[in-house]
Automatic annotation (TrEMBL):
Source species taxonomy: Bacteria, Bacillati, Actinomycetota, Actinomycetes, Propionibacteriales
Protein name (Swiss-Prot/TrEMBL): ClpX-type ZB domain-containing protein
Chain sites annotated for binding Zn(2+): 10, 13, 34, 37
Family affiliation: Belongs to the ClpX chaperone family.
Keyword Chaperone included in the entry's annotation: yes
Residue ranges occupied by any ClpX-type ZB domain in the UniProt entry: 1-53
Keywords associated with the record: Chaperone, Metal-binding, Zinc
Length: 129
């Protein structure tokens, strides 16, 4: 099973990227970041005044209601991307014959709870091992 960046978005700005787009994404564990955001963060981290300003308040404290509402779909898209990635990760584990019991232990839940959460998208629908 190959996990790809196809159809992914930048977890920070929400722009679509990956193969077939001009926006290159890097990252892992569900979160993806585009080059523009990396450059922006690099600029913040390496400029003392900008860094101090960024540390002073959270972005949502400076947003008006319309900006907050406009950002909500991006937050949900990023959350959905991470949920899909978790399913892909479990599919990868199952393709390597990792048992539902082992997956459940890693998640701190029972084998059944892991299976109920992740088997619906998994190609193997059995609750074996």
């Amino acid at each position: 099973m190959a996990i790809t960046r196809e159809g992914r978005i930048c977890s920070f700005c929400g722009e679509p990227g990956g193969p077939g787009t001009d926006l290159r994404l890097i990252g892992g564990l569900g979160a993806q970041v585009c080059e523009r955001c990396v450059d922006d963060f690099h600029g913040i981290l390496h400029d003392e005044a900008t860094y101090a300003e960024a540390r002073g308040s959270f972005p949502w404290e400076r947003m008006d209601d319309a900006e907050l509402l406009a950002t909500l779909p991006q937050i949900l898209a990023s959350a959905e991307q991470n949920t899909a990635f978790a399913h892909e990760w479990v599919d990868l584990l199952r393709s390597r014959n990792i048992s539902w019991a082992e997956i459940g232990r890693a998640l701190g839940v029972s084998r059944q709870a892991a299976w109920e959460r992740f088997s619906r998208r998994s190609p193997d629908k059995g609750a074996t091992a």
